[in-house]
Amino acid sequence: MVNNNNLDLLKKSVLAWSIILALQILDISYFMKITKDLLTTTSGLYGDSFYFLDSDNFTESFKALTSEFQLYYPKSRIAYSYKTNYIPRLCKIVDSLGGYAETVSDMEVDVALAIGVNAGKIFFNGPYKKPKAIEDLLLKGGVVNADSAADLKIICSIAVSNPEDILRVGIRCNFDIGDGVVSRFGFDFNFLGPTLFIERYLRILE
């Protein structure tokens, strides 16, 4: 049975999470009043470009969001989108809390590795991936989600060249959810159907 209090907490957690990411918020209290004097002082110290980050509030929100998901899906883990904000300080907090790195470019993969994220906690998504970046992450133990037949061919080539390695690979599919929008990402499972999907794409893996 769904607990209404838990649902309320989940909604609040998601809202807090969304606000923090939207503002891309230097490590101060989120509830501190941001004044002209504060901005002028901060600009004098760090230059014209900077973020305010409330790491304590971010941490609390991350834990609350994770806990709410795990009430229903105990093995849930949050994979943080580096595309949203890949400031190292923020990404290190996510890693310290057991979060994963969700990346869509080799640069973001490099950021995750540079700050000490275990390769096994890195997911490499996105419609375009350089072959070398795919190979490097797979051989380090990371996860590459194939978004196209081109990705699958690259992965197969890597597998053939490294027969002793176990490659962690996912296949990104998109499904009709009734909203009238056709996704440009992944394999269109509904259009192809399971049989044709296997014949057309998974045969590449043979």
Keywords:
single chain, 206 residues, alpha/beta, five-stranded parallel beta sheet, two-stranded parallel ribbon, 8 helices, 7 strands, 11% strand, globular
Tell me what the structure shows:
By secondary structure, the protein is α/β, with parallel strands linked by helices. Helices cover 50% and strands 11% of the residues. It has helices at residues 4-23, 36-46, 55-72, 88-96, 106-114, 131-140, 149-161, 189-200; strands spanning 79-81, 100-103, 122-124, 143-146, 168-171, 173-174, 187-188. It has a five-stranded parallel sheet, covered by helices on one side. Strands 6-7 form a two-stranded parallel sheet. Helix 1 packs across helix 3 (55-72). The longest helix is centred in the N-terminal third of the chain and has 20 residues, at 4-23.
Oligomer: single chain
Mean pLDDT, nearest integer?
81
Class based on secondary structure composition and strand pairing? alpha/beta
**Quick one: biggest sheet?**
5 strands, parallel
Q: What percentage of amino acids are in beta strands?
A: 5-15%
* Coarse shape: globular
> Secondary-structure element order, as H and E?
HHHEHEHEHEHEEEH
Low-confidence stretches: 13-25
Strand order of the largest sheet: 1-2-3-4-5
Number of helices: 8
- Beta strand count: 7
Which percent bin holds the helix content?
40-55%
Q: Calculate Rg over CA atoms.
A: 20 Å
Cα separation of the termini: 45 Å
